[in-house]
TrEMBL record:
InterPro entries: Homeodomain-like_sf (IPR009057), HTH-type_TetR-like_transc_reg (IPR050109), HTH_TetR (IPR001647). It comes from Nocardioides potassii. Residues 43-62 bind DNA. Signal peptide: none annotated. It holds the Pfam family TetR_N. Residues 20-80 form the HTH tetR-type domain. Keywords: DNA-binding, Transcription, Transcription regulation. The keyword DNA-binding applies. Coiled coil: none annotated. It comes from the Bacteria. This is TetR/AcrR family transcriptional regulator.
């Protein structure tokens, strides 16, 4: 072999893509199993067996059961868009000059997340109580949600936002809110979407707000 000949560089992109597809597959399987069996009934071994991979691969890829659940939770809502903050930024609401169109886009986005995430919200609460890492991940996700709400209020306000706007928007856009209305009051996704739009506008503008 000629030592002076240019050496072919190894292209790892195919392997990385395959690993990412495998990770997405495992997260999807985990989401289904967590929804069916809850936190205690879903083990890393069960997910690995259903996904056709090793327990070691699942453990290393997701950093344990807590990381696996959070990946599953995000997968059903955000897909490849990553975290809530990343998915929200991908909407590019600031590029839309019409505030009402911004609101329409966000409501569609929020509904598309809340509906598939709904069946997993109670599992999320169970896991956070029992797994310290899970609790940390949940707190981090909640902090990210709050940041998104602050930015959303800024983007939707047509004047000075109502004093409690961010906190109200935070409550309105939690997946738990949709799931409660769906389970306890029989709401359809369409009814939730229409209500969410009205409620977000009222929260930002402070309609009906009075002295406490």
């Amino acid at each position: 072999m000629d030592d002076d000949a240019p050496r072919r560089q190894y292209d790892a992109s195919g392997r990385r893509a395959a690993a990412e597809r495998r990770r997405e597959h495992v997260a999807g399987v985990a989401a289904r199993l967590f929804a069916q069996h809850g936190w205690n009934g879903t083990t890393v071994a069960l997910v690995a067996a259903e996904a056709g991979v090793s327990v070691e691969l699942v453990t290393k890829s997701f950093d344990g059961k807590g990381g696996l659940f959070m990946a599953a939770f995000r997968s059903v809502g955000f897909g490849r868009r990553g975290t809530l903050q990343q998915a929200f930024e991908a909407l590019h609401l600031e590029d839309e000059p019409d505030v009402e169109v911004r609101l329409d886009r966000f409501v569609e986005f929020a509904s598309s997340i809340a509906v598939p995430m709904g069946p997993l919200v109670w599992v999320l609460a169970q896991g956070a109580e029992q797994d310290p890492l899970m609790g940390e991940l949940v707190r981090s996700a909640q902090a990210g949600h709050a940041v998104v709400c602050e930015e959303l209020v800024r983007l939707l306000a047509t004047g000075t936002p109502a004093p409690d706007a961010v906190d109200e928007v935070y409550l309105l856009t939690r997946a738990e809110t949709y799931q409660t209305l769906a389970e306890h009051r029989g709401w359809t996704p369409e009814r939730y979407t229409a209500w969410l739009r009205r409620s977000l506008r009222a929260a930002v503008d402070g309609w009906g707000a009075g002295p406490v």
